[in-house]
Amino acid sequence: MMRGRWSLLGILAALALALVAPGLLEPYFVGILTRVLIFAIFAMGLNLIMGYTGLPSLGQAAYLATGAYTVGILVKKVGIGFLPASVAGVGMAGLLAAAFGLIALRARGASFLMITLALTQAVWAIAFTWRSLTGGDDGFPSVGRPDLGFLPWSLTDTRVFYYFVLVFLVLAVAVFYTIVRSPYGLALQGTRDNELRMRSLGYNTWMLQYVAFIIAALFAGLAGVLYAFHVGAIAPGWAGVTPSAEALLMVIIGGPGTVVGPLVGAGMIISVSEVANIFTQRWMMVLGATYIVVILFAPDGIVGRLKRLMPRRQTA
Amino acid sequence: MKVLSADKLSKSFGGLQALRSVDLEIEAGECRAIIGPNGAGKTTLFHLLSGTLPTSSGTILFQGEDITRSPCHVRAMKGLARTFQITSLFPSLTTMQNVILAVQAVHGSKFVMHRPATSSQQTMDRVQQVLEEGGLWNKRNVPVRYLSYGEQRQLEVMLALAGQPKVLLLDEPTAGLSEAERGTMTSLFRDLRGKVTIVLVSHDIDVAFAVADGISVLHMGELLTEGTPAAVRQDARVSQIYLGDESESAHA
Ligand SMILES: Nc1ncnc2c1ncn2[C@@H]1O[C@H](COP(=O)(O)OP(=O)(O)OP(=O)(O)O)[C@@H](O)[C@H]1O
Ligand SMILES: [Mg+2]
């Protein structure tokens, strides 16, 4: 059987599972699953710049928090509708990346990692200190969830909200898949492999990376908007190191440069930390151990490892 | 008509003067070889001409236009292509994806996101042509890190040719190749003569003399001499830097 057919089967099976899961699980677990879906979108954005373009960022939390705070502030403080507020949340994340990208993309490798981290800290500082707008340390309360209008379901229902997020995940995967297979997506992979040669072939690699940086932030912004609806309150910690580091782990463990890797990674990291949470306070240590095991036995991630096990597609 | 020229081109790396006031004039359609011993500055000259390194002083004209300060990718889009002495490919991508990257650059689809890279008939026709001419069609789905060294060198040149450049800068294309592979490559360059302007850097003087109309000799960052292959072959200074004083006296 060819790899293409295996992947299709796998995706259909995963989708079927995702569709029936809420019916089989307690609402508490449906909530955890919803978080997996949201973080899968978040990690997918990071994967575009990290796995496909070769820019590992520790600053994606800045855009997650921007999406979340923007939608919260616009809905609660300005009083505009959920739909325009959500669009604005995603857009603000993209705008912020358009500004931060000008600074961060002067660096590569470890310095890029540090600069993106530093920029995130700036967002965290704003969220923390501008109490009148964000609620500071107390958090931004009661964001609420949108009303689906003419549809007969309410998003306050845990299961309905899960399906709502699932729709966005499927859309995000479709967009992501289209991008990475496109001429632009191939150009990103070329830039990851060999930036100098790309320039010699006529590519403005800076611009390729800059656009990817913004697209990644749009994914993070969408995740932030959905996460604000999911949790119902926003904390400055959303712009902290933890969400960025989690996304990084999800991509590394799932498989950078693969479409489904970050989805698998999100599932792994969140379930491992949830389970570890029950038995021990030191779930961070358990995560660290998981990381080491995966790096030792599957250095290009779980999905990367599976791909190697599959027979290569033969073309006559 | 001059297509590419350098005027008093210099480059220093810290205290090291790698190129000193080099003048170069390349005629359209010409095949020029640049020879010189290790460290003469040949690769540095290519870096300056192609824009992969900034020039310290001097001017570069391409088709009459000053490109001294143009970024590398702008020069490439104007039709100035180059290869690298140390093979420079996209190792995790397949042979075909490597060639698609080279072709789609000139077909103007670099930022197209809504359709697969393989969906443009125009691009794929050219990709197939390049792969067949280069004898790598059978290897099109192999990631290039699994190609043999000879095949990688071949692809190195194919990527530069794929975009149908006006001027092709080739840096040691035959380095490390077997006798047979060198023969194939040399005949490829002969076929290209007249179709594209070629500037060829080569250690291998035999390849240079076999294909070039004119030869420029670089030595310690300076242009030592320039002329037809026959004239350069006769030049005592050239045999001296290549063969040393010993054979110089033996010839005398
Ligand atoms: N990036 C660099 N930094 C410092 N010195 C450099 C750099 N690149 C080249 N050089 C030095 O400049 C001089 C010319 O080097 P260049 O690579 O141009 O020589 P070359 O003629 O291509 O030699 P070869 O035949 O070995 O390829 C050498 O002394 C080299 O050590
Ligand atoms: Mg050299």
Structural account:
The complex is a heterodimer of chains A (316) and B (252). With 316 residues, chain A is an all-alpha fold. Chain A contains 14 helices and no strands. In chain A, helix 2 packs across helix 11 (241-254) and helix 7 (158-181) packs across helix 8. Chain A starts with a helix and ends in a 7-residue tail after the last helix. Chain A has a domain at 35-239. Chain A is globular. The model of chain A has no long low-confidence stretch (mean pLDDT 89). Chain B is of the alpha/beta class. Helix content of chain B is 39%, strand content 25%. Chain B has helices at 42-50, 72-78, 95-106, 121-133, 149-162, 179-192, 205-211, 229-234, 236-251, and strands at residues 2-13, 16-27, 31-35, 57-62, 65-66, 80-82, 167-171, 197-201, 214-219, 222-227. In chain B, strand 1 and strand 2 form a beta hairpin. Chains A and B meet through helix 7, helix 8, helix 9 and helix 10 of A and helix 2 and helix 3 of B. Bound molecules: adenosine-5'-triphosphate and magnesium ion. Residues 42-43, 85 of chain B line the site of magnesium ion (MG).
Structural class of chain B: alpha/beta
Shape of chain A: globular
Arithmetic mean of pLDDT of chain B? 91
- Portion of residues within helices of chain A: over 70%
Q: What strand line-up does the widest sheet of chain B have?
A: 6-7-8-3-9-10
Protein topology:
The complex is a heterodimer of chains A (316) and B (252).
Chain A lengths: L2 H22 L2 H26 L8 H18 L3 H23 L4 H21 L1 H4 L23 H24 L1 H11 L1 H6 L4 H27 L9 H14 L6 H19 L3 H15 L3 H9 L7
Chain B lengths: L1 E12 L2 E12 L3 E5 L6 H9 L6 E6 L2 E2 L5 H7 L1 E3 L12 H12 L14 H13 L15 H14 L4 E5 L7 H14 L4 E5 L3 H7 L2 E6 L2 E6 L1 H6 L1 H16 L1
Parallel strand pairs in B: 3-8, 3-9, 6-7, 7-8
Antiparallel strand pairs in B: 1-2, 1-4, 4-5, 9-10
The complex binds adenosine-5'-triphosphate and magnesium ion (MG).
